[in-house]
Amino acid sequence: MNKTSKSTQKLLIISFILFVIVGIAVLVFGWYYIMGLSKQVNMTLSEAKNIEHESELLSNLNLSYSHVSDQKDLVLESMPDSKNISSFLATVENLATQNGVEIESNKIGETATKAKSISDSQLYQTTNAKGGYYELRIDYVVVGNYIDITGFIKDITSLRRVVSVEGLSFYTNIADVAPGVDSVTAEIATIIYIKK
Q1: Does 60 share its domain with 121?
Q2: pLDDT tens digits for 146-175?
Q3: Rounded to 10 degrees, what is the CA torsion of 111, 151, 172, 113?
Q4: Number of C-beta neighbours around residue 104 at 10 A
Q5: Where among 56, 78, 100 does a domain terminate?
Q6: Which end of the chain has less neighbouring CB within 10 Å, N or C?
Q7: Are 74 and 95 part of one and the same domain?
Q8: Considering only CA atoms, which of 164, 162, 165, 182 is closest in space to residue 174?
Q9: Tens digit of pLDDT for each residue in 70-109?
Q10: Could you tell me where the DSSP H helices lie in the chain?
Q11: Single residue among 41, 61, 78 that ends a domain in this structure
Q12: Among candidate residues 95, 162, 105, the one with its CA nearest the CA of residue 134
């Protein structure tokens, strides 16, 4: 072999070796680049799943807040402020009429009255202060038959406003009624709650 052919051969071998080394380097660096992109894609997908999960949690939290807000309104309606005492007394008067019961008298706190309202100064003198609310005792003396009076009490306790029936006494009205007529007097002790 001649000298040029040997040097060409060496040059070809060196070129081939360089080509293999460059190819291996490209493959190695390309592999690391692709793996880096793959990790980045996986991290992006994971972040997207986390964002979707957080969005779902936020949506649930928004629904919970809406539910709590509705419940708050219901609680405020069930324990209104002092301005709604008159409306409560009027509601009870209407329930008595609807049930065929006559309210002979009511006693708000310590004051016996037939009034349908009470002033704030009278109100706070007759309430018991508790944590975040006041208790106001209202006693009723009603006349009717047993069924009508029990319907009246059921309707009072079914109001949205929180009302506790603390005591109940029945007395038969024998002298005032005709034979066969069921007439009783009932004393009903209730407590309503007023927010501070």
Answers
A1: no
A2: 899 999 999 998 887 778 888 888 888 765
A3: 10
A4: 13
A5: 78
A6: N
A7: no
A8: 182
A9: 666 666 666 666 656 777 888 899 999 999 999 998 888 7
A10: 3-78, 85-98, 120-125, 146-157
A11: 78
A12: 162
Give Cβ neighbours of residue 194 (< 8 Å, ≥ 6 apart): 79, 80, 81, 82, 85, 123, 127, 133, 134, 135, 136
Same domain, 57 and 132: no
- Joined tokens for residue 190: 């209730």
Same domain as 90, residue 186? yes
Distance between alpha carbon 129 and the CA centroid of its chain, in Å?
25
Number of domains, the chain:
2
**pTM of the model as a whole:** 0.56
> Cβ(115)–Cβ(148) under 8 Å?
no
Domain span including residue 172: 82-195
Structure tokens at 97: 């009429």
